# Entry
Amino acid sequence: MREALIAAAFQLFLERGYEQTTIDDIVTLAGVGRRSFFRYFPSKEDVVFPDHEQALADMTAFLQASADTDDPVARVCDAARLVLRMYTENPTFSVQRYRLTKKVPGLRAYELSVVWRYEHTLADFLRGRFAARRDGALRANVVAASVVAAHNHALRSWLRANGQGDAEAAADRALAYVTGAWTSQQPASDNPEEDDVVIVITRRRTPMWRVVRDVEAGLGPE
# Structure
C-alpha cells in the first residue's frame, strides 16, 4: 500500500503538478482511504521523501557500530555513501524527485531540513570522537559540513545528468578532498625554536587516529 501511494502521488505530481494535487486525489487514484495515507505519511511533503527516515536510521546504526579502531573521518564518509546508494538504487524516482523539488519552493525547504538532520547526525558522532580536543566541537561541525557538501556535489551532478554515470566514483573523488584535508599532517615550522615537542606514551595497539588526536589535544590551538 505504501508503494501504491508513492506511485499514485508521483503520477499525479507529474501530470497535474505538486500544488494542484491533493491528498484526496492521491488516495482516490491509489484506491485507499485517507486514513491509510496518514498511516504511512504525516503530510504530502513526506510522500516525496519516503526513504529518508530509513536512510537516517541506517546511517545512525552504521555510526553507532563504529569500532574504536575506525578512523572517524573515514567513517562519516562511508556513512554518506549509504545515503548516496539510496538514490542510485532507483535512478528514475530520484531524478523525478529532483526535478519536482527544483520547481516547488516548499519542497526545497523540506529537503534542506532533511539534509540538516544528516549533517547533525554526522556531527554528533564526530563530537564524541573529538571530545578530547579543545576544538573538538568546531572540528566535528566543520568536518560534517564538508562531508555533506562533498556528497551533495556528487549527487546533484549525477541527478542533473538524469541519473547517468558513476555516482559512487564521483562521490569517492569528492569525499577524498575531505579525508585529505582532515587526516593529513600539519607541516613543521621553518623555525626550530617555534616547534613544539610532545611525548606520548600509549599502548602498542592503540589506533593511529587516536594517537594523532591525543597529540593535537596536547599541542592545543595555534
